[in-house]
Design brief:
Number of strands: 8
Helix content: 25-40%
Structural class: alpha+beta
Oligomer: single chain
Largest sheet: 6 strands, mixed
Shape: elongated
Number of helices: 1
Radius of gyration: 24 Å
Length: 139
């Protein structure tokens, strides 16, 4: 009789642990999915800013946005990223500063041979229609 109760208790503990493990895995995957969605939204916000502030002879068809770096201790020095326009290294914007909302603040470093002109005034008619936004694994 004691042996049956002991076996039943072991089964309950085992199944409880199993359910707990599956629950933790499910929550972890859900959080991972939400982070990916947030990162894609940030990339699109940065790409839209680029499309609205740069113009050139060739239309912008592709924007690669690098990972967002948090500078300083706990982000005290802000955030920054890098961008490549139309897959050309001469169109690379480095150290692009981001404000608290994740939108570029207009500060960046660029190559002198860049094929696009920066405009401080936003072109609100420009959209991401026809522009491919990609994740770029820089550094």
């Amino acid at each position: 009789m004691k042996n049956k109760k002991r076996n039943k208790t072991i089964k309950h503990v085992f199944f409880g642990l199993l359910i707990g493990i599956f629950t933790v895995i499910g929550i972890w995957q859900l959080l991972s999915f939400q982070v990916k969605i947030q990162q894609q939204e940030q990339r699109e916000k940065i790409a839209l800013w680029c499309v609205q502030h740069f113009s050139g002879k060739k239309p912008i068809r592709n924007i690669k946005v690098g990972r967002i770096k948090i500078n300083g201790i706990g982000g005290s020095a802000g955030k920054s990223t890098s961008v490549i326009i139309n897959n050309k290294d001469v169109n690379r914007l480095e150290g692009m500063g981001l404000n608290d909302d994740g939108e570029p603040d207009g500060s960046f470093i660029y190559n002198d041979q860049i094929e696009y002109t920066y405009h401080s005034k936003r072109n609100t008619c420009a959209t991401l229609r026809g522009v491919k936004v990609e994740d770029w694994r820089n550094n």
